[in-house]
Please model this.
Amino acid sequence: MTVHDMQFINSEVAHVWRDVRWVESVGSTNALLLATGKPGDVLIADEQTAGRGRMGRTWVTPKGSQLCFSALISIDEVERAGLIPLAAGLAVTDVVPDANLKWPNDVLLGGKKLAGILTEAELNTPQPRVVVGVGLNVAWRREDLPVDTATSLNLEGRDVEWDRFAADTLLALGERMRQWRDNDPQLLGDYRASCVTIGQLVRLQRPNGDVAGVVDGVTETGEVIIDGVAFSAGDVTHLRPTR
Ligand code: BTN
Model:
């Protein structure tokens, strides 16, 4: 296992995250942190054996392939919780500035998926909590990528120093969550600027039926607007190539 300087990472992010742990292997960082974590905790893993993806899919995290982590956040304004997944996607674009977003939060680099984000929430409790889970492709062998529509930083010629990159990503997430808490308009402004789904002809796959149309924008609560109708969930396919 690569040795990580946890003292360095923790000291870099201490004003935002109370405890960062890095483990070799875990089922799902989201599941473990939701079950055992406290608000402000971060769990990073080299490998997941039962990683969870959006829409009930699985998420593959072979050892050393991703910056794979979850962060546990306690929230007061559950009405605005729908913006948290978008804020998390934006945080990844802060550390990979030429990446952009497919609604709600797939991070694309050169039109290929660089990172996936799954937020899971417990909202009907006295202290609502959200776990933000990020799988950011850092070091894959091309032949191991699960789909050819994915990419990885190393495959785009970018090498990162893991500990610095982990700290920077956590700082970016902390800052975007601060904007969320403060209801700072910059958050949605930056999201809309980075979201290449806006203006696109898309297909939205939903459990109760697909919708196709042009995306007019994203609402104040994070829904995608297709031909004037807002949708809160689903899988978007861009029907034309994206930048
Ligand atoms: C997607 O389907 O695009 C979302 C994938 C989210 C994967 C991350 S990896 C860290 C965290 N733990 C999980 O089990 N899933 C998320």
Q: What stands out?
A: Helices lie at 6-13, 29-36, 84-95, 162-181, 185-194. The first strand starts at residue 19 and ends at 26. The chain has a mean pLDDT of 96.
